[in-house]
Amino acid sequence: MRKIRFMAIKEIRHILRDPRSLIIAIIMPIMMTFLYGYAINLDIKNIKLAIIDYDRTAESRDLAARFYNSGYFLPPDNAVDPSDPERVLKTGSAAAIITIEPGMARALTDMTSYELGILIDGADANTALAVSSYASIVIRQFFMNQLPEGMEFPGIIISPQIYYNPDLKSSHFFVPGLIAVILMMISALLTSITIAREKETGTMEQLLIAPVTPVQIITGKVLPYIGLALLDGILVLLFAVFYFGTPFSGSIILLLAMGLIYIIAALSIGILISTLVKTQQLAMMISMVITMLPSVMLSGFIFEIKNMPVALRVITHIIPARYFVEVIRGIMLRGSSLGVLMIQAVPLVIIAAILIGVAARTFKLKIN
Questions:
Q1: What is the pLDDT of residues 63-80, one digit of tens each?
Q2: Residue 97 to residue 141: CA distance in whole angstroms
Q3: 361-368 long-range Cβ contacts below 8 angstroms, 24+ apart
Q4: What is the pTM of this model?
Q5: 186, 33, 27, 288 alpha-carbon torsion, rounded to 10°
């Protein structure tokens, strides 16, 4: 027993001396508990719904109010343009559009047939199903309340049309997001070990006495990984399209350009980690933790950002994957153009520029 106790004490001392073990043992469970506990919310609420009211009657306004008072739906941030209603779907401002054509109030009075149209963004199959289900409940309750007691449900036809993913396949929603997560993890992981490897093998001093500047060192080290990460992205994209059957509706040039910005941001995270740690193992571990968890949990890849607590929603704004998930889904599923994706493109460019600057400055300070 005495030997076992000595061995246990020795192991405890080793763990306390090893920061990597402490991070794995203490910080990772805390982070995972925090993220899973707060971010996982499978309830779909606060769905942005646009309503175009051509009937303009008290009944049609009452129906619109029923939607927004139901607890499921909210009005979109931007007013819908009746001449181009699909734009609110492409920009992600709304998950669905309900068009109330003239004649609804008259149909209620005359008990004649009437068709109520719903356009649903099917890129997110789960949200599309929820919209269809919740909308049907709200509409049915509204019309039943409008009828005198004992009257039957009138000949109202609800005709939903699902855009971008008519089969509501979950793979069409998840696979593009998975490309964003994989690119972030692989790119950061690749560059996180570059400078750490130089330190670990003792070749950093040789590199520093060479007649090159820190910027040249970083650029020379990053460029091959940019090409490698782009190749990875193209391979995963081909796999998604030809194996999973994910549709590709937009511009491949636009996707490559946006992907390049995203990869540069991810590589900069790796370089920043690499300048701060001394071993490849620690660099790999840190890059996995700070890229995988936020990219999976807080990017909208699986869980709806709008359903997260306010504090987590604020944090998501500094995560590059949040923007690229929207970009790649918009291009692949909706065929969105740069004009539509500018709201995601601008923050992504700013984040990439900041990360490059911080990585270069940190590397220079470390050298000095």
A1: 888 888 888 888 887 777
A2: 19
A3: 362/272, 362/275, 362/276, 363/195, 363/214, 363/217, 363/218, 363/271, 363/275, 364/214, 366/275, 366/276, 367/208, 367/214
A4: 0.73
A5: 0
